[in-house]
Write a structure and sequence with these properties.
Number of domains of chain A: 2
CATH architecture of the largest domain in chain A: Sandwich
Distance between the termini of chain A: 39 Å
Radius of gyration of chain A: 29 Å
Number of helices of chain A: 5
Strand content of chain A: 25-35%
CATH class of the largest domain in chain A: Mainly Beta
CATH superfamily of the largest domain in chain A: G protein-activated inward rectifier potassium channel 1
Oligomer: homotetramer
Helix content of chain A: 25-40%
Shape of chain A: elongated
Order of helices and strands of chain A: EHHEHEHEEEEEEEHEEEEEEE
CATH topology of the largest domain in chain A: Immunoglobulin-like
Chain lengths: ~300, ~300, ~300, ~300
Amino acid sequence: MAIFNNKNKEALELGFGTKNYSNRVRFLGTDGKVNVHRAGMGIKNLDVYHWLITTSILSLVLVILSSYVFVNLIFALVYYIIGPQNFGGLDAETPMQQFINLFFFSAQTITTLGYGHIYPVGNAASIAAAIESLLGLLTFALATGVLYGRFSRPKAHLLYSNNILISPYKTGKGIMFRIANRKQYELIESEVMVTIALNNLETQKREFFNLKLEISRINFLALSWTIVHPLDEESPLFGLTKKDLAERDVEFIILIKAINDTYSQTVYSRNSYKAEEMVENAKFKPLTPEANKRGRVRLVVTDIHLYDVVS
Amino acid sequence: MAIFNNKNKEALELGFGTKNYSNRVRFLGTDGKVNVHRAGMGIKNLDVYHWLITTSILSLVLVILSSYVFVNLIFALVYYIIGPQNFGGLDAETPMQQFINLFFFSAQTITTLGYGHIYPVGNAASIAAAIESLLGLLTFALATGVLYGRFSRPKAHLLYSNNILISPYKTGKGIMFRIANRKQYELIESEVMVTIALNNLETQKREFFNLKLEISRINFLALSWTIVHPLDEESPLFGLTKKDLAERDVEFIILIKAINDTYSQTVYSRNSYKAEEMVENAKFKPLTPEANKRGRVRLVVTDIHLYDVVS
Amino acid sequence: MAIFNNKNKEALELGFGTKNYSNRVRFLGTDGKVNVHRAGMGIKNLDVYHWLITTSILSLVLVILSSYVFVNLIFALVYYIIGPQNFGGLDAETPMQQFINLFFFSAQTITTLGYGHIYPVGNAASIAAAIESLLGLLTFALATGVLYGRFSRPKAHLLYSNNILISPYKTGKGIMFRIANRKQYELIESEVMVTIALNNLETQKREFFNLKLEISRINFLALSWTIVHPLDEESPLFGLTKKDLAERDVEFIILIKAINDTYSQTVYSRNSYKAEEMVENAKFKPLTPEANKRGRVRLVVTDIHLYDVVS
Amino acid sequence: MAIFNNKNKEALELGFGTKNYSNRVRFLGTDGKVNVHRAGMGIKNLDVYHWLITTSILSLVLVILSSYVFVNLIFALVYYIIGPQNFGGLDAETPMQQFINLFFFSAQTITTLGYGHIYPVGNAASIAAAIESLLGLLTFALATGVLYGRFSRPKAHLLYSNNILISPYKTGKGIMFRIANRKQYELIESEVMVTIALNNLETQKREFFNLKLEISRINFLALSWTIVHPLDEESPLFGLTKKDLAERDVEFIILIKAINDTYSQTVYSRNSYKAEEMVENAKFKPLTPEANKRGRVRLVVTDIHLYDVVS
């Protein structure tokens, strides 16, 4: 059962459009991100949760820290306007130090720490503190969700060979790349689809073809997997050289679907190769996994990049 | 592999029934909500979690704030009945101010803030405070779940063209609308089903037909997608004008299924068009995405609404 | 595409075995629970998380409250053994009141409330309090997960008609029951499988058959759905009366699969009918949903139970 | 509909490679873990979340406790460097006791307990405490996610018979093993795939074959399920004895997929049998579930291990 729409071998609709751009286009970055910026709806194009889930750890830490400082400054200002005399235990001498102490009081309130050596006395101060502690709890509820969302997000940590090769294959040639799982969890029922985009030099349109693969599905991705497109007469790339493909601004668009069985999650991985990552007359070095005496197999995943030039 | 039940082209069962209502009916709102109110089971028809997950942010904030005030009022009352003399640090002069201070004490307890300048002394007061702090933790555990549920809920932020057009298509005509993804995440393996509901003027029953589509599935929804139903002789709408369709109270019911691959979630989007959103003799303006020098493509998604009148 | 294994119309393996029990057996309760107790592995048969997720709200509240009291008693005892003199602010006169105050101190510690009017002074007391507060946080982290797990658990709130009818159907008869969704979210792509279990009076084995249905899948479950098995010559029930079926201890085992599109979750619902819930010579009353002027349809879901006796 | 890739009955690609190791290899442990260590990317091979989710409870508790002590030691050191004179209520006489009290203050801060009998006075101390309480909240947000992730992780608690038997089957023989669900939740739509790996003595390559099963899918796994591979002429094992299979280092690789319908989660279970777990001329004892008067069936799941030797 094919999960992907492989039937139409003619110029197929991938949702990338058929426009032939004057600049060279790479629809998929090597990080798997689609290279399209969607504008026109102002703030409705934004997606805060998506950003929080996918941004780097460093950005996230900076956002959390600066929000923390900012919110505490706001509440320190509110408390200061209400008046330092409405707080017990606030024995500061200068207005500046009063403000700073109210800043710390705010931090102790929003985290629900509440040492209590400073405490609200008047009603306004108590109301503001009650609101701040509720806000703190809700914010940290949100933070819990975001952190859980980040860590539990389905991910396929696939390693792709740096290059896509034109290799000897059976009596002819084939286009090949390799993948491996670089984490310790298992991927099962992996399935791959390879599509190429290339400019039609006659019609000046960008065309898309699905490439027929020798094997498009495997049950376990325990070691590595070499994905092969035979360059036979049925192939839309039959007879084309790397130079021809570069001229047509070729892009190999790869979509892999698998199940991460630690979490029973379906995961997706995307990658693309352009002509500059193509190597002609080369073949991958066989991997050399070793089994120790207890029957455990050790594989160096980065060996999937290695290839030999063939004459 | 079709995921939807497309086989039966004759009056098919959608679960909407075949009753021909005397009032005009729109089964699907433009917000994708099914326009049915289910009654008869009293409180068992209610679904609090569903409401909390789907209501607007504003409603949610109001519910949280008013619950916070309400619960603190209840506990302030309990503490007041137990007696202000059972609380240390409660130096208020009037009964009213005592009640207010106990309200703040309650807020400091339910959030587990616990400054401690007011504290329970007697056993009854301590028991009530122990219960309130437990209640607070459980409530905020619930709030965490609700907030996470809201943000992690699978959503497809599709933009539908404002109108559905009857356009020139090949040698005849076709019914067309356009969609685009307005967020930065990617939708893959998108699939669409279009069903029409219309009154049969003879039998006085409401009939349902699936419309055959030129393409019903695409692998990436990177730019936009124009969904086309050819008005050929096989179409149940062949030969009907907008006026005919309005007379039969036509409704185009659209269901789109896709995979949001940031979260590997299957997402659904629904929409409907009625006769008043139909435009005859028009065709969509081609979109004009532009690629910058780094190969990044910029698309103005709101351009999908634009069309030209054709003679 | 059938999701269920419908092909084998002969005695098929459901995983219930073919044993013909001497007592009457109902494999599926009307609550959808499979009526099997699995023993033999002691504590490894237990599943605490499953219990916490599926038990009633009342049981859950009782478990939480009694655990809270129990843990605080344990820590109060620890603190008492460490010695009341190691706590500041513990101005109780009798040993009993000291223990009670330490109990409240424990509650203020495990919830991280920490008023501070009682506080640990010695190292042993401080260590115990540090451990208790960590334990509290971890426990409430667990509670958050359990509560979220309960509320976000995929559920199909289907209402089944109280009875399964033998009704006139086309030129012969059919077996029918009705379902409706009693909540406001939508169920899409609903699919049903009906299997019967009955004793073979000759072989003394229990046999299982899938029943062929008029329609086994609908796209929306907006109103109600009458599921019909035609009693034609192909049916394994052809020619059998209610009395015959009771004699063979018949059980109709119903499995419904649908997608709750608020959460994009696949949900399952099970139910069973026994001979005593079967009514011969009856047919369901048509439902009477009404559309108001704004096109909104109101349905009384409990009307699905209603039927008329036919001669 | 087969979910697994069963078509290619010839040497099929499982992602385990075809290398014939000099040491005996067991690709799947009896715990279902794939016996492959993936190296070569340094820290990028690590997966902390995966470890936290899958490690034993004991390891997790030890990691949490030692992290708690470690982080508090770090902050105690920071506070000590800032200077004990910057903390109110820190009435310790020796530097050592001052450090210990700052350690407890740190614990009271990171848990947001905040008794307040020790409190920060200077700005540096207040800033450090504000950072520590934020860190505490974020850490416990993470802990909430990890604990929820552990408990909500989809799991199939299948019990496999200790042995795989060569039993009489119809007129010939069959290879059989049994499974049962040992928990109280239900598994539905269970599907099994059995693959064998064995060395080809001629080519010195490791070959993989899918075994044809009598039944490969059942709707309910209410009692037990005996999975049977008929040893007929089509079988790649036809005519081979246990001794032959041991010589070829046979491994039966079993993958089971089912739906846990409490959580509507697809769950996977894997297991393997080697020649030493194979028993010739034996057959499984029939299970003896009993139904009580209320129609509830009791099954001793560990009985699935039992077999009788046949002549």
